[in-house]
UniProtKB/TrEMBL annotation:
WD repeat spans: 164-206, 274-315
Name of the molecule in the record: Chromatin assembly factor 1 subunit, putative
Keyword Zinc: no
PROSITE patterns xref list: WD_REPEATS_1, WD_REPEATS_2, WD_REPEATS_REGION
Annotated spans, Disordered: 28-50
Signal peptide feature range: none
InterPro entries linked to this entry: WD40/YVTN_repeat-like_dom_sf (IPR015943), WD40_repeat_CS (IPR019775), WD40_repeat_dom_sf (IPR036322), WD40_rpt (IPR001680), WD_repeat_RBAP46/RBAP48/MSI1 (IPR050459)
Pfam families, sorted: WD40
PANTHER family, sorted: WD40 REPEAT FAMILY
Keywords assigned: Repeat, WD repeat
Claim: Lipoprotein is one of the keywords in the record: no
Gene3D superfamilies noted in UniProt: YVTN repeat-like/Quinoprotein amine dehydrogenase
Domain of life: Eukaryota
Length: 315
């Protein structure tokens, strides 16, 4: 199946993991949660159900560089056998339009709905459903905002429920803490990291300035709250622990023989630096909920799987 809906380059993709359980099986319990800040309320109903996986409830969200958002249901929407076009360079170096046979007889799926913010043109860089509030969708953009939308509203993209900004650089990526209802982290094009509480949009809780170039991905750990990873164009992938913001920790001093030649001071939240890639590190992923095993991929065409020794967490 091929999903076709955006008119320009896609930049973000995510599943709504809260929608994977059959609502008709098992006991259901509704919990209402409010995100409040200066009179802005977002009410969400979180269904906690147990049962078999029902793919008809799976929602997929995507965003693109033209500022559009698409919502998809892989078992709904309009399907056709239109074969997508794939563009490339032929043997003589000229542009060519290839009709790849592997796509033949593969149905293409149109989105359930598409939104484009006509009030302001900006590139959308990343998109995620909230892990606790199943109707909350977060999107970050080149204007430095992370905006929260309630997808239950018909024209939700016309105005965000609440927006977060305290830095005048493009926000490339963000991640919700899997163990917290309100904490998320964001990464910017100049290498800055910000930690936010969703109940306060005036200023971030913490800023970490260590990466020397653009941050491409930031992801919270699946194993423990407060631990997250980042990867950057400076060739490094880092693991951080927010709990090390305590005043009881001594200031970590810069070593003269720092192998990564980073001119910035080492933040006390830094747990580990992986420097195995040559050039930009584009993406990272945590393995599961029982280990600190991670994988990163970079411009050097390598996929590296590595594990931070847990002893670093207790130093």
């Amino acid at each position: 199946m091929i999903l076709k809906g955006h008119g320009s380059e896609g930049s973000g993709l995510c599943w709504n993991i809260n929608k994977i359980y059959d609502n008709n099986i098992g006991d259901s319990k509704n919990t209402k949660n409010n995100i409040k800040d200066n009179g802005n309320d977002t009410e969400n109903t979180n269904d906690e159900n147990s049962g078999e996986i029902n793919t008809s409830n799976l929602l997929l969200a995507s965003c693109a560089s033209d500022g559009s958002i698409c919502l998809w249901d892989i078992n709904k929407g309009t399907k056709s056998n239109e074969v997508p076009r794939t563009y490339g360079i032929n043997k003589v170096g000229k542009g060519a339009d290839y009709n790849i046979k592997i796509y033949e007889n593969t149905p293409t799926l149109s989105p359930l709905c598409t939104w484009i913010n006509k009030n302001e043109e900006t590139t959308l860089n990343d998109i995620f459903f909230h892990s606790k509030f199943n109707n909350i969708l977060g999107v970050c953009d080149d204007n430095g905002y992370m905006s929260i939308y309630d997808i239950r509203k018909k024209n939700f993209f016309t105005k965000p429920e609440i927006s977060y900004k305290d830095h005048n650089q493009p926000m490339n990526t963000f991640s919700f803490d899997n163990f917290s209802e309100y904490i998320f982290a964001s990464g910017y094009s100049d290498g800055l990291i910000s930690i936010w509480d969703m109940r306060c949009n005036k200023e971030s809780l913490l800023k970490i300035d260590y990466h020397t170039q653009s941050i491409n991905r930031i992801k919270f750990c699946l194993m423990q709250s407060g631990i997250f990873g980042t990867c950057s164009d400076d060739g490094t992938a880092c693991i951080w622990d927010m709990s090390r913001n305590s005043e009881s920790y001594e200031q970590i001093k810069k070593l003269e023989d720092d192998i990564y030649n980073n001119p910035k001071k080492i933040p006390k939240q830094l747990l580990f630096v992986h420097g195995g890639h040559i050039g930009s590190v584009y993406d990272m992923s945590w393995a599961n909920t029982t280990t600190l095993l991670a994988a990163t991929v970079g411009v050097d065409n390598s996929l590296q799987v590595w594990n931070m020794n847990e002893q670093f967490m207790f130093q």
